[in-house]
Amino acid sequence: MAPTYRPGDRVLVVRRWRPLRPGDVVLARDPRDPGRWLLKRCTQCGGQRVELRGDNPDASTDSRTFGAVPRRSVRWLVVGPRPPATTVG
After folding, report:
1. Which three-class secondary structure string do you get for the chain?
2. How many domains does the chain have?
3. pTM score, whole prediction
């Protein structure tokens, strides 16, 4: 499957205000490097752990590599592509 977002794409994110659902695209802390963020899709959201997958399994490092992540590491929900800048004039 082709990735939904590509490197350099801008996205609009909001602080997570509701429970996670399978299919949500999120920003989560990388469990291997807490200073890095990952853009992934939630596939399983049970208990205190969340399984994250990339849309392109052949080129993605995700929960298949590092396991499920703590729910608290998922801080942001992606709500869509960033709206285009408006111009005045």
Report:
1. CCCCCCCCCCEEEEECCCCCCCCCEEEEEECCEEEEEEEEEEEECCCCEEEEECCCHHHCCCHHHHCCEEHHHEEEEEEEECCCCCCCC
2. 1
3. 0.80
